[in-house]
């Protein structure tokens, strides 16, 4: 009896029922998806804390497990039908939910019934409100509020917090992987940013425009977005040799570093900042984009260009198969229809160039052409070999640039036979993820990084805009087969500008009458509003402009 009357036991006795309830949530969730890991347990417990603030304790346990089971089964049904799991944005689509009622199985109805009964019973037997329970419930509410912030500024804090304390890992490139790694609750919270479809409305963006060029030449335009391609006087690579081959060089600013290629692709094809829309734009909004987006390929197609988009990787990656036709590519080709020796690693860029050259040569005589090629063979990670991975990176990049150089010569020769001028552009989509190398060479300074953990350099969650500008700096090379002075002028106009300035300058080479590109070119010529403190992109591009150009 003395044991049960110990003062310590008296202090913890009031918490025992809650601890047992949490254990029931952790143990019971095995019946929901038969898996345990830190994100699954963490998000389930947070949901329990939310329910426990208003419901009787054991009703909160039942509601937590039943709601998770309900969402998991709905996600399973959606994934069978669409090959994509339930997303955070789907929770706001009432019409879509009603359309799925015909697919509901008995498990969904059972979980829904248990959820409703548990909530009803829990409210009937609800406990008195307490500061402790309300405080714990607010944790989930705060995370959701941060994720729903339309500016994206708060979600930039939320994701690192969830990663640090809940073990979540946001796989924004593949939502099926994201759901598998984080569980359905964590997955929905991480993807709730997809609910932010831009609002339409009036704006004055077109009030400032750069004067149209005199007699644009409408050349063929071939753009190569080169995976992780980089060079700098402090880290010279094979890419620097392009200056000796008649290319003019500029430095542009990518919105991403080390990955997130589709965000650079978004800017290069739309002329809009990728910072406005949350997450990876192609991945999050592929199904919501208009069938004909106001993007560079569509603008050029409207003035007679044959538009071709190609990538030597899978068409489903970043949902390019779904997005490319909407952007305006009349022709597309991905690695599924190219030769690839998988045992050799990433697909070779030479294969991409061979297919692109064949398509270019096969076009009707005199046909104006726009081609956008996305490479992949220089994709990371780069394995360290008595260095930070630089040796392997240099080896792969040298092969990639050599293949591009051959392609560029063949392209010029083909254009000459077709009696066409061709403008060739190649730029790095982002820096390679060689953090230590960039630090050692003075490209980054220690202020970019958080205190080292396990010897790894990790960027601070929030960088200054000046730091973002340095982190996004990548090389661009441009050549005009007939008018080298035009290429040099374009390089000067793009120097130190964000990547979204590139499509504006390319569109102005054509007969396109879209006033958007003249308006973007005016902002790029001024070059005063970019990478300023705060949410500078919202001061440059009105939210309504995104709704107008990209969505129905």
Task: Characterise the protein shown here.
- The chain is of the alpha/beta class.
- The protein is 48% helix and 8% strand.
- It has 23 helices and 8 strands.
- The chain has helices spanning 7-12, 16-28, 30-33, 38-52, 57-82, 94-99, 106-124, 131-147, 153-166, 175-190, 261-270, 281-285, 296-301, 320-327, 349-362, 390-417, 435-440, 465-472, 484-494, 501-507, 515-526, 536-540, 543-550; strands at 220-226, 248-253, 306-311, 331-333, 369-374, 422-428, 473-480, 497-498.
- It has an 8-stranded mixed β-sheet with strand order 4-3-5-1-6-7-2-8, with helices on both faces.
- Helix 5 (57-82) runs antiparallel to helix 7 (106-124).
- The protein is elongated and about 85 Å long.
- The N and C termini lie far apart (73 Å).
- The model is unreliable at 94-99 (pLDDT under 50).
Give the mean pLDDT.
88
Structural class: alpha/beta
* Inertia-based shape: elongated
How many β-strands, per DSSP? 8
**How helix-rich are the residues, as a percent range?**
40-55%
Can you list the strand order of the major beta sheet?
4-3-5-1-6-7-2-8
Largest sheet: 8 strands, mixed
Low-confidence stretches: 94-99
Percentage beta strand: 5-15%
Tally the helices: what do you get? 23
End-to-end separation in angstroms reads: 73 Å
C-alpha-based Rg, rounded: 27 Å
Comma- or semicolon-separated keywords:
alpha/beta, elongated, 552 residues
């Amino acid at each position: 009896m003395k044991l049960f009357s110990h003062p310590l036991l008296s202090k913890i006795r009031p918490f025992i029922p809650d601890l047992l309830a949490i254990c029931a949530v952790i143990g019971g969730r095995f019946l929901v998806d038969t898996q345990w890991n830190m994100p699954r347990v963490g998000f389930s417990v947070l949901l329990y804390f939310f329910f426990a603030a208003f419901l009787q304790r054991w009703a909160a346990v039942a509601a937590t497990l039943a709601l998770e089971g309900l969402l998991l089964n709905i996600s399973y049904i959606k994934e069978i039908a669409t090959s994509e799991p339930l997303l955070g944005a789907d929770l706001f689509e009432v019409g879509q939910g009603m359309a799925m009622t015909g697919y509901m199985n008995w498990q969904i109805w059972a979980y829904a019934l248990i959820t409703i009964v548990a909530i009803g019973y829990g409210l009937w037997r609800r406990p008195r409100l307490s500061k402790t329970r309300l405080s714990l419930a607010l944790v989930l509410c705060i995370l959701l509020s941060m994720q729903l912030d339309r500016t994206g500024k708060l979600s930039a804090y939320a994701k690192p917090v969830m990663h640090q304390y809940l073990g979540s890992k946001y796989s924004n490139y593949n939502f099926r992987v994201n759901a598998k790694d984080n569980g359905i609750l964590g997955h929905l919270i991480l993807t709730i940013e997809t609910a932010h479809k831009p609002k339409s409305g009036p704006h004055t963006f077109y009030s400032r425009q750069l004067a149209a060029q005199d007699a644009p030449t409408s050349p063929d335009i071939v753009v190569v977005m080169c995976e992780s391609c980089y060079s700098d006087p402090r880290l010279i690579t094979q890419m620097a040799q392009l200056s000796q081959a008649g290319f003019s060089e500029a430095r542009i600013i990518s919105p991403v570093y080390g990955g997130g290629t589709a965000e650079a692709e978004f800017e290069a094809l739309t002329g809009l900042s990728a910072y406005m829309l949350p997450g990876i734009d192609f991945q999050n909004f592929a199904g919501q984009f208009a069938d004909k987006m106001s993007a560079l390929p569509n603008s050029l197609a409207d003035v007679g260009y044959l538009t071709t988009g190609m990538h030597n990787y899978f068409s489903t990656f970043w949902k390019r198969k779904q997005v490319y036709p909407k952007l305006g590519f009349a022709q597309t080709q991905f690695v599924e229809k190219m030769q690839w020796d998988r045992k050799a690693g990433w697909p070779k860029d030479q294969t991409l160039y061979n297919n692109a050259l064949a398509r270019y040569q096969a076009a009707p005589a005199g046909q104006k052409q726009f081609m956008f090629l996305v490479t992949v063979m220089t994709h990371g990670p780069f394995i360290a070999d008595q260095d930070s991975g630089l040796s392997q990176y240099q080896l792969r990049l040298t092969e990639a640039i050599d293949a591009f150089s051959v392609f560029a010569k063949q392209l010029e020769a083909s254009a000459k036979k077709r009696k066409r001028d061709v403008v060739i552009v190649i730029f790095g989509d982002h820096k390679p993820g060689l953090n230590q190398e960039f630090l050692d060479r003075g490209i980054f300074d220690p202020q970019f990084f958080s205190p080292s953990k396990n010897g790894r350099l990790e960027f601070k969650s929030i960088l200054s805009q000046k730091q973002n500008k340095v982190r996004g700096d990548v090389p661009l090379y441009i050549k005009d087969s007939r008018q080298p002075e035009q290429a040099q002028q374009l390089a000067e106009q793009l120097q130190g500008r964000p990547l979204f300035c590139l499509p504006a300058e390319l569109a102005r080479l054509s007969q396109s009458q879209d006033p958007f590109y003249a308006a973007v070119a005016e902002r790029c010529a001024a070059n005063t509003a970019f990478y300023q403190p705060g949410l500078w992109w919202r001061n440059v591009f009105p939210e309504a402009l995104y709704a107008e150009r990209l969505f129905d």
